[in-house]
Write a structure and sequence with these properties.
The protein is of the alpha+beta class. It is 58% helix and 9% strand.
């Protein structure tokens, strides 16, 4: 399928099912699909993200719908209509503004999304809004650094580290007038920092994550083990936990084939960002719900992973946290430099 056909199918899902959701007020596409030409082939391992806007309030990410629809990996999130009342609040949000700066609206019975899109498109590259979006990413990174300092388990440490890296990469993207991304966040970060002559910061990010030294062989090992753990987690998962919505059989290509695509393109260390996420989520589900006799191999795998990323002991966690704080300060400075010199930004 190409992008145009994928958009048509997403619109079909909205017409048939999205509009049946109580309080439906509109829907629009988010993510990378909004920035691809219509005739571009759309890889089957990529997901399609959309937001359904509801009359009263949104829902947490834990309530997202993860769907398989006619060959699409479809993720549906929910926002409240009030979030779009003010173009200013949308313009200041790096996870709303990029998608509404382009023509992403699939359904808009109230007309509010179209009006918001028109306002956001006009103001999107103005300095005050770019700075506001950068500050949003910085604040989120600092918040996860603070939560990391209170972490009392390796699972929590890895979770907070993952989010810190995500928002630091997001700050670089936002300053460069690029939409933040998740699976390919480190690839985009590398490209943008290379253009600035600051690949040292990208290397430090990989090092803080524990991926900097990883060989292609090691990454491929973890990708294969992730596939095994993912399949077992999907089979046994019963107990809810944060982000367990990612553990569905139809999401497997996104996790595994999407990682393979990055590895084949020469980004094996950057691919570990997604591999780690799905590996950790899978092991949590297995430890929660698998029969006791199934758990030891995955416990051993997790111990090996912690050793490979250098986060085995609380002393390791504290040391890595201090490095992450220093990296955040440097990334913030680079972000400000990009904003200051970016000719795409209008005063």
């Amino acid at each position: 399928m190409n992008v145009r056909q994928v958009v048509q199918l997403a619109n079909e899902w909205v017409e048939l099912y999205g509009k049946q959701i109580q309080g439906f007020c509109g829907a629009y596409l988010t993510g990378g699909i909004n920035f691809l030409p219509p005739h571009t082939p759309f890889p089957p391992y990529c997901d399609v993200d959309l937001i359904v806007v509801l009359q009263q309030g949104g829902k947490s990410s834990q309530e997202n719908l993860e769907l398989a629809y006619k060959g699409l990996i479809l993720e549906c999130g929910f926002k409240g209509l009030a979030e779009y009342d003010s173009p200013a609040s949308v313009l200041a949000n790096p996870h709303l503004a990029p998608n509404l700066a382009v023509n992403s609206v699939l359904s808009d019975p109230t007309g509010l999304l179209t009006r918001t899109h028109q306002a956001v498109a006009q103001e999107y590259t103005r300095r005050q809004w770019v700075v506001a979006r950068c500050n949003y990413e910085k604040k989120r990174a600092l918040g996860h650094l603070a939560q990391w300092s209170k972490a009392d388990s390796p699972f929590e440490v890895l979770t907070q580290l993952w989010w810190v890296a995500n928002f630091l990469a997001g700050a670089i993207a936002v300053a460069s007038i690029k939409p933040p991304t998740h699976r390919r966040a480190l690839v985009l970060m590398q490209e943008l920092l290379q253009a600035r002559g600051r690949l040292d910061q990208h290397e430090e990010m990989l090092s803080v994550l524990g991926f900097g030294h990883m060989s292609l062989e090691t990454v491929e090992f973890y990708m294969q083990e992730c596939a095994v753990a993912f399949d077992r987690a999907v089979a046994v998962k019963r107990t809810p936990f944060p982000w367990d919505v990612k553990l569905h059989a139809h999401i497997r290509p996104y996790a595994i084939e999407g990682s393979r695509e990055m590895i084949d393109a020469g980004y094996h260390r950057e691919a570990m960002f997604a591999i780690e996420l799905f590996l950790v989520l899978s092991i949590i589900a297995i430890q929660n719900d698998a029969p006791e006799e199934d758990k030891p191999p995955f416990q051993a795998l997790f111990g090996r992973f912690l050793g490979d990323v250098g986060l085995t002991t609380p002393a390791d966690w504290r040391s890595r946290l201090e490095r992450a704080k220093k990296l955040a300060e440097e990334i913030f400075r680079v972000t400000d430099e990009i904003v200051e010199s970016n000719t795409e930004i209008a005063d």
